[in-house]
Structure formats: C-alpha cells, structure tokens
Design a protein that fits this description.
The protein is an alpha/beta fold and about 375 residues long. The protein folds into two domains: about 100 residues, STAS domain (Transcription Regulator spoIIAA); about 260 residues, no CATH class. Helix content is about 70%, strand content about 10%. The termini are far apart.
C-alpha cells in the first residue's frame, strides 16, 4: 500500500490499495481553506496513476461546508469524465444531513435530453381560455383600484400630482399634434378624392364636403386619433411603469406609503381624457382642410361654398358624438397601458412584451367600443 503526501496533515489522506483503485480518507472538516487543494491533489494522483475508481471514506469526517460538498461533486465529475467509478462510503449522521441539505446527488448531474412534445389543440385552447379569464380578472381588479383612486382625488384634490399631469398632457397631446394633424389632413384629401370619383358623375361635387365632414367628425377622426395615441402614449405608459416594476421602484413607492395607482395611473388617465378629445377636434379641422384643398384645386369649388356645405352638414350632435367617443377611447388607452405596465414580471424582455400587448389590446378594445357606439347610434338615437 502506497501513501501519498498531502499538504495538510490529519485532514485528508490519499491511498492506492491496488492499481487504479484509489481511496481518499477525509479526516476532520473539508471547508473553504482546503477544498481546492483536495481536488487539485486528488486529480493529480488520478492522472499519474490512471485511477479507474475513487472511493471517498467519510468515516472520520466531522463537517463539510458548501465548499466541501462542491469539492466532492467536482471529484465525482472528474471520475465521470474519465469513465471511472466514484463511491462515497461511511458518511456519519451529520455529514449525511449536510449532503442531503445541499442535494449532493443532483449536483453536476445533467438531465438527459428529452424531446419536447407540443400540447394538442385542446390543451392549447384550454390554456388560452384560462389566460383570458386571468387577464379579465386582473382588468376588473385594476378598474376597482383606479375608481377608488379617482374617488380619493375627487375628495382630496390637493393630492393630485398636478406637475406630472401637465407633463403627461404635453406628451400625450401637444407632442402628438403634428402627426395627428398630418394624418388627418391626408385622410381628408383621400376621402375627398375617392368620393369625387362617383359624385362628379352626377354633378354633385359639393357633397364631397358633406361626406368628408361627416366621415371625419363622426368616425375617422376619433378612431384615427385614438390609434395614434395608443401607439405613442399607450406604449409609453406601459414601458414606463413596466420599467419601474422591473427596477422595483413600484415596490419602493408602496414601502414609502404611496399608493402606486394614485401616484402613477391617475395623472396619466386624466391627461389622456383631457387631451385626446382636443386632439380629435384638431383632427376634424385638419381633415376638413384636406378636403377643402381637393375641393378647390381639383373639383373647382369655391372655399366659401365648401365651408358653408360643411357647416350645414356637420351638426353639433355629430361633433359632440365624435368628441365623446374619443374621451372613452382615451380612457381605454390609459387604463390598458398602465395595466400592462403593472403586469410586467421578469426582466427587460417582459417590458417589451407588455408594451406590445398594451398597443394591441388598446386598439382591439377601441374598435370593439366603436362598434358598440355605432349600434347605440343606429338603434337608440
């Protein structure tokens, strides 16, 4: 029997009983101070002697810390790579408890590759159904939280963060005015061009003004403005709150005694509800100007005739109806954007998913609500 020197006497001893069968006797404790040297010395012996089997005797081992457990796991990994055998024998009660606590058997063990089986169509439908139910429940709870916060602001107006509200109004309304105005102007021109193709055959060019005015004030301006705001501000609301969730700023607000819904959501909702109807009015004006350009330069109408026809057609009811719809759309945009932000879990990738979901969900709900308004107008008004 050959004995090999070790750097720390009375701590561990490496013995070779016969060719290729090496035994490691551990005495006392294996911890951060000697775990690295244990692995290094044992590995060098295994290389020199071409060890086929390594037996670790823990009969005299009194304690293992996390470094000691990792050292044993590393030795087992070394033997596995060399197609050798690893045996752990005579562990005491305390050592057994430590190995069990660190789940020694599962350390460095690679799970076999398993082919992922795609769930069948019924499982996918069931998962989608439960996701929809969970999402609907979250929306209802969030509606309650928002209503309570608005009620608190109504009772205590001084608690409203006026500076943040005005900042959100500037970002939602003023900064969106150029793109909304340009899109509305072009849409007015397009509707005027397309309608003139048919109306000029009957000498009814003047009714191009009526068609542009009604279509834009009643339907297209509220819907188009809401979609633009959903893409700009709805996504901004979701990404801002989502980033705060990831960085635990929302939890910090709650810890400091602030209501996150009142602190973050109410200013955004108020700003959207105030500015989006105003944006819709600007959209109406730009769309009528776009139709006016086509009417004057293409249809040979006078500007006075075009404007008078528009005033006769577009009554206050249609104007109010479009503004009212845009206010509801604004409420949906701010509500969904903030909700998706609060639903963020995980890292930066979840913020991107929440932003996309906020835009898609907002546009979907806007179109659904617009359909409901159309039904109400036809059958009840």
């Amino acid at each position: 029997m050959e004995t090999f020197p070790e750097p720390q006497p009375d701590r561990y001893e490496i013995l070779e009983k016969d060719a290729g069968n090496i035994t490691l006797h551990i005495q006392g404790s294996i911890n951060a101070s000697n775990a690295a040297s244990l692995v290094k010395d044992t590995d060098s012996i295994l290389q020199e002697r071409s060890g086929l089997s390594l037996t670790v005797d823990l009969e005299k081992a009194t304690y293992l810390d996390d470094y000691g457990v990792l050292a044993l796991a590393e030795l087992r990994e070394i033997m596995t790579k060399r197609d050798g055998f690893f045996h752990l024998v005579n562990p005491g009660k305390k050592v057994k408890e430590i190995l069990s606590m660190f789940e020694f058997e599962s350390l460095t063990v690679k799970s076999p590759f398993e082919k992922k089986i795609a769930p069948n169509v019924f499982v996918q439908i069931g998962e989608a159904f439960f996701r929809i139910i969970s999402d609907a429940k979250s929306m209802i709870f969030f509606v309650g939280a928002v209503l309570l916060s608005l009620l608190y602001i109504f009772i205590h107006p001084r608690s409203l963060r006026a500076d943040d509200t005005f900042l959100c109004m500037r970002r939602t309304g003023v900064e969106a005015l150029p793109i909304v105005g340009l899109i509305s102007f072009l849409l007015g021109m397009i509707i005027a061009f397309m309608s003139s193709i048919q109306l000029r055959q009957f000498g009814a060019n003047i009714y191009v003004a009526s068609l542009v005015g009604l279509a834009m004030t009643y339907e297209i301006s509220p819907l188009g403005t809401a979609i633009v705001v959903a893409g700009r501000s709805g996504s901004s609301f979701a990404s801002e709150i989502g980033t705060m969730k990831v960085s635990e700023e929302v939890d910090a607000l709650f810890t400091m005694g602030f209501d996150p819904t009142r602190f973050l959501v109410v200013p955004k909702i108020l700003a959207a509800v105030i500015t989006v109807p105003i944006l819709t009015l600007f959209s109406d004006v730009f769309a009528i100007l776009g139709g006016l350009v086509v009417g004057v330069f293409v249809l040979d109408l006078t500007s006075t005739a075009y404007i008078n026809q528009t005033i006769r057609t577009v009554t206050m009811f249609y104007l109010f109806w479009g503004v009212m719809k845009s206010g509801v759309f604004a409420l949906i945009i701010a509500w969904v954007g903030c909700l998706r932000g609060f639903q963020v879990r995980g890292g930066a990738d979840s913020v991107g998913r929440a932003t996309t979901s906020a835009v898609v969900s907002s546009i979907f709900l806007i179109i659904v609500m617009d359909s409901i308004f159309a039904i109400i107008h036809v059958y009840w008004l």
